[in-house]
Structure to design on (126 residues):
C-alpha cells in the first residue's frame, strides 16, 4: 500500500488533507493508480468533510466513490438522499439501505423458451 492510500484510509487524516487526496494526478481508471484508490478510500473515510463527500457524490465517472459516499455513516442524510436514484444500482441501493427504503425494483427477465414462474406460488404460468 502506498503512503497516499494509507493516508486516505486513516480516520485521523485531516479533512483538508483528505480533500487534497481526491485530486491526485493520474489515471483514475488504472488499477495501480493512487488517483482512483484514494478517491474510493476518502469516500469511505469518516473524517472526510461534507464538501469532499458532496464532490465525490456528483462524480458520474466514479461509481466506487459514489458507493463509498452512500455507505459512509458520516455522510449527511440530505446527501445520501441525492443518491437513491443513482444510475448505478449498487449506489442507489446502498443509499436506499442507509435511509431504510426498499431496494430499487429489478426488471423481470424473460428468457424465450423457458417457462415463467409465479414468484409467490412457485408454479409455472402458462
Amino acid at each position: 500500500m502506498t503512503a497516499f492510500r494509507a493516508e486516505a484510509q486513516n480516520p485521523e487524516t485531516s479533512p483538508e488533507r483528505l480533500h487534497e487526496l481526491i485530486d491526485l494526478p493520474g489515471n483514475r481508471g488504472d488499477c495501480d493508480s493512487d488517483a482512483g484508490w484514494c478517491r474510493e478510500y476518502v469516500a469511505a473515510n469518516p473524517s472526510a468533510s461534507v464538501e469532499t463527500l458532496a464532490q465525490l457524490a456528483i462524480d458520474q465517472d466514479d461509481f466506487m466513490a459514489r458507493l463509498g459516499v452512500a455507505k459512509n455513516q458520516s455522510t449527511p442524510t440530505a446527501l445520501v438522499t441525492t443518491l437513491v436514484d443513482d444510475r448505478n444500482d449498487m449506489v442507489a441501493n446502498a443509499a436506499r439501505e442507509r435511509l431504510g427504503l426498499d431496494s430499487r425494483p429489478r426488471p423481470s427477465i424473460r428468457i424465450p423458451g423457458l417457462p415463467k414462474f409465479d414468484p409467490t406460488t412457485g408454479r409455472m404460468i402458462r
About this structure: Strands lie at 116-117, 124-125. The longest strand covers residues 116-117.
